[in-house]
Amino acid sequence: GMIYEMNRRMAHALLSQKGCAMQKGEVVGLLLPNIPEYVPAIYGSLMAGLTVTFANPLYTPEEICRQFENAGVRLVITLPVLLPVAQIYKSKAKKYRGTVSIGGQHNVQENIFGFQQLLMENHESELPVIDPEETAILPYSSGTTGMPKGVELTHNNLVANLVQGTHPEFAKYYRPEYAGITETILTIPPFFHIYGFNAILNMCLKTRNHLVSIPR
């Protein structure tokens, strides 16, 4: 379908775009609110064999840089309004490949690449085989008992949680008779939070429900 095709095109772009081509296992940082483009941004990254960490866009530049430095982020996907924060991180990062701007345009001199342009262009690359035990995402704890810490979750971890969430023995709200019924879900929990990502975004895609994204 259309979502799969957008994810696939994003994956090819991330692996082959001249000036910011990523390598399997490297880390992408998402600095985004809840917007529709979050889907190809994160699934395209995962399809490319990359690891994703996501940050609260309302964090201070210092907080974002600390997380991205700790995670080893090589590329940031963000909005034009947040490009200055990405550029601050770029100046601190030891190895930085580039920034993808959703709603922005290519600026090759600054290694900034327009999200829509990447999707429209044809990129030649071979998508890697994904090991289910490889790290998929690297969310950070809230820091209630100290500084936020990265939590490694594999592809298997995410899939297992989705299976649990739709199993009648574990999720009493889910019933087989609900299959095929499309609901409309307001995505109030942020996607940069593990609950918003796996329990809302991933679960709704798995159960084919409609998502209404609310940026704030």
UniProtKB/TrEMBL annotation:
Pfam families: AMP-binding (PF00501). One of its GO terms (biological process) is fatty-acyl-CoA biosynthetic process. It is found in: Peroxisome. Residues 4-213 form the AMP-dependent synthetase/ligase domain. Keywords: Ligase, Peroxisome. The keyword Ligase applies. It comes from the Eukaryota. GO terms for cellular component: peroxisome. Its main location: other. GO terms for molecular function: long-chain fatty acid-CoA ligase activity. PANTHER family: LONG-CHAIN-FATTY-ACID--COA LIGASE, LUCIFERIN 4-MONOOXYGENASE. This is 4-coumarate--CoA ligase 1. It comes from Culex pipiens (House mosquito).
